[in-house]
Amino acid sequence: MRGPCAIPGERPSTTVDRGQSIAAIAIILCTLIAATSARCQQLVPFGDVPATSDFSEAEIAARGRQPARDLTYSDWSKMCFKGVQGADTKMVCRTTITGKWDTGQVVVRIDLIEREDASAKRLQILIPAAFFLQPGLKLTVDKGNSTDVPYTLCLANACVAATVSDPNFVSALESGRTLSLEGVNANVVTVTSSLPLDTFAKAYQGPPARIFEQKLEGKWEQPDNGNSK
Predict the structure, then answer these.
(1) Which is the CATH superfamily of the domain at 18-214?
(2) Domain boundaries along the sequence of the chain
(3) Cα 31–Cα 195–Cα 114 angle in degrees, nearest 5
(4) Which phi and psi angles does 128 have, rounded to 5°?
(5) What angle do CA 174, 175, 179 make, to 5 degrees?
(6) Which run of H or of E encompasses 30?
(7) How far are the Cα atoms of 40, 62, 76, 142 from residue 47, in angstroms, in the given order?
(8) What value, to the nearest 5°, has the Cα angle with vertex 106 and ends 124 and 32?
(9) Would you call 72 exposed, middle or buried from its count of C-beta atoms within 10 A (0-12, 13-18, 19+)?
(10) What's residue 165's pLDDT?
(11) Is residue 142 packed enough to be buried (19+ CB in 10 Å), middle (13-18) or exposed (0-12)?
């Protein structure tokens, strides 16, 4: 089996505080992933998803399912990031929820990311580098509307799964009650966790709780026009 990246249902084998690492990575990603740019290429992709499937969906399903270790989830909240390069800089916002173990360590985070004046919205999930990469992750609202979220890159202490969100799925999030997160652990067993959606619509539709102004490296907000070296 290639690409085992094990799970929110297992304790980490290191004493390093991965929660802090995930939080730091998320701040960087929120300012970068809203637009595809050369700067994003500095985040090294994991490059270890099998070219052909090692397990079929039927084989994975036959191995069974188990609940993740208990997680305490935050309320959904919205924060925005705005560059300070000029008046034409677009603001990037994320509506987010985090899940922690009883130790206080953040082990999962889900973001719905949107950029000012852009219609597309991006779903992003950050988890510890411990899942089996091949199947990706799956989100389901109230056992109905679902979407698959493939892994896009892994860093030292976290992996990121992301996809452009279907508008119907965003609408389902706004009206739903529970969001189910499914992933496949290193033993190729499906692990599930349920997240509350009761505060999502208020956070998503309302003003941001905080706006961060920061200088973004590179000219990711503006066309290159062939001037980069």
Answers:
(1) Invasion associated locus B (IalB) protein (2.60.40.1880)
(2) 18-214
(3) 25
(4) -60, 155
(5) 75
(6) helix 18-32
(7) 15, 27, 32, 33
(8) 35
(9) exposed
(10) 93
(11) middle
Q: Which helix (H) or strand (E) holds 26?
A: helix 18-32
DSSP assignment of 1-18:
---B---TTS--SS-S-H
Question: What's the CA gap between 146 and 176, in Å, rounded?
Answer: 12
The tokens for 112 are: 């719905």
- The DSSP letter of residue 174 is H
Average pLDDT for 142-167: 89
Could you identify the residue written with the tokens 């989830």? 73
CA distance to 65, 104, 195, 198, per residue, from 172 (Å): 25, 30, 14, 12
Q: DSSP letter at 90?
A: P
Which one, of 226, 211, 219, lies nearest residue 88 by Cα?
219
- Torsion angle of the four alpha carbons 131, 191, 21, 4, in this order, in degrees rounded to the nearest 10: -10
Joined tokens for residue 27? 């701040």
pLDDT, tens digit, 9 for 90 and up, residues 4-52: 343 344 443 333 344 444 444 444 444 333 333 333 333 333 344 433 3
Q: Are 194 and 180 in contact (CB under 8 A)?
A: yes
Nearest to 125 by CA among 193, 221, 44, 214: 193
